[in-house]
Amino acid sequence: MGEKSSDMERFAGWVEDLMRERGYDIDSPRGGGRSRLAEDAGVHRAAVTRLLQRQSLPDLETMRALARVLGVGLRDMLIESGRVTADDLPVPDGAGGGAGRGRVTPAEAAELLGIPDSHRRQFVEMAEMIIAVSGARPEGVHPRRRDASASS
User: Fold this and answer.
1) Three-class secondary structure assignment of the chain
2) pLDDT digits over 104-149, tens only?
3) CATH code reported for the domain at 2-81
4) Is pLDDT above 90 for 38?
5) What is the model's pTM?
6) Do residues 79 and 107 lie in contact, with contact meaning Cβ atoms separated by under 8 Å?
């Protein structure tokens, strides 16, 4: 049971970090972050509470909803929970750009989607803006800042 307990501890810590990064206040007594996450994900607050109190792992549907709201892939959620390994859910060749994380940068997405060069900069900037607004920024992706001398 020790391994399952450490999986749960690690997973709950990972979810807590994601919640903080996404602006869910889980550190103050009346922050309401747990309830807000449950509401945003459309899951029972008890499922979030049980996870954060290291009592149980969420079921697949709850994980899917939490992954969506926290801006991570379901694959990442399942691997981090210890339910499966990266070998159990391999990323197909050519997918997932870099380090096999299952994520691509906006520039990589533009390439994979065949966005023409004439529209690529607009596509990348729009995708970066959506990522920034949603709080679902993958590591290493930063929105471009427009300087006054840049032309449109």
Assistant:
1) CHHHHHHHHHHHHHHHHHHHHCCCCCCCCCCCHHHHHHHHHCCCHHHHHHHHCCCCCCCHHHHHHHHHHHCCCHHHHHHHHCCCCCCCCCCCCCCCCCCCCCCCCHHHHHHHHCCCHHHHHHHHHHHHHHHHHHCCCCCCCCCCCCCCCCCC
2) 788 888 888 888 888 889 998 998 888 888 766 554 444 444 444 4
3) 1.10.260.40
4) yes
5) 0.59
6) no
* Stretch 63-87: mean pLDDT: 90
Angle between helices 74-81 and 2-21 (to 10 degrees): 140
- Domain chopping of the chain, boundaries: 2-81, 91-152
